[in-house]
Write a structure and sequence with these properties.
63% of the residues lie in helices and 12% in strands. With 186 residues, it is an alpha+beta fold.
Length: 186
C-alpha cells in the first residue's frame, strides 16, 4: 500500500487511493475503470460538465444532484456514483480529472503495467501504436499501456513520456530550438 500511495499525491491522490481500495475490496476494479473511462470521455466532450465540476458558483447540493443525474443517465455503476456523491459533498469535484488519472496509475501499477503518455499531432493508427508499444515494452521489460492524445499544435512528430523519461521529437520543439539558435546568431 505504501508503494501505491506514493504513485499519487495531493487531494486527488487521496481520493484516487480511496476509490482504488474500495474497488479492489469489492472486486470491481475493471468495472470502476470502465466507469471512470466513460466519465473521462464525458468530461472531454462536454464543456458544460467541466463547468459543473470546476465552478464554485454551484452549491454543494446542486453539484451532487447534477453529477448524480449525469452518472445515472450514463449508466455509471453504484460504487462510482456513491463515490462521486462523496466527492461532490466535500466540494472536491474540481479534482475529478486528476482522481481518474490517479486511479488509472494505481490500477496499472497493481496489474504490473507501465504507462506511456504519447502525444501526437494527428491520431495514430493501430499499427503505429503497436510499434510504439513494442519499442517501449522492450525498454520496460513488461506490459506497457499507452495513453494516446492528439495535440495539433505539435505540427508533426511525437512527445513520449515514459516513467521519468520524456522524448520530445515534435516539429514544434525543433522549430522553437531553431528559432532560439537563430536569435543567438543575429
Amino acid at each position: 500500500m505504501a508503494q501505491e500511495t506514493s504513485l499519487v499525491t495531493g487531494i486527488a491522490g487521496r481520493y484516487a487511493t480511496a476509490l482504488f481500495d474500495l474497488a479492489r475490496d469489492a472486486g470491481q476494479l475493471d468495472a470502476v475503470a470502465k466507469d471512470l473511462d466513460a466519465l473521462s470521455a464525458m468530461l472531454a466532450d462536454s464543456a458544460d460538465l467541466v463547468r459543473l465540476v470546476r465552478s464554485p458558483v454551484f452549491s454543494r447540493d446542486e453539484q451532487a444532484r447534477a453529477i448524480g443525474a449525469v452518472a445515472e443517465k450514463a449508466g455509471i455503476g453504484d460504487l462510482v456514483r456513491r463515490f462521486l456523491g462523496v466527492v461532490a459533498s466535500n466540494r472536491r469535484l474540481f479534482v475529478l480529472a486528476d482522481v481518474i488519472a490517479g486511479f488509472k496509475r494505481l490500477l496499472s501499477h497493481h496489474r504490473g503495467e507501465a504507462i506511456a503518455d504519447v502525444v501526437s499531432a494527428v491520431p495514430l493508427n493501430d499499427a503505429q501504436l503497436a510499434q510504439i508499444k513494442s519499442s517501449l515494452s522492450s525498454a520496460a521489460a513488461g506490459n506497457v499501456v499507452i495513453n494516446a492524445k492528439v495535440d495539433p499544435s505539435l505540427i508533426g512528430g511525437l512527445i513520449v513520456k515514459f516513467g521519468s523519461r520524456m522524448i520530445d521529437a515534435s516539429v514544434l520543439t525543433k522549430l522553437n530550438s531553431l528559432k532560439t539558435a537563430m536569435k543567438g546568431v543575429a
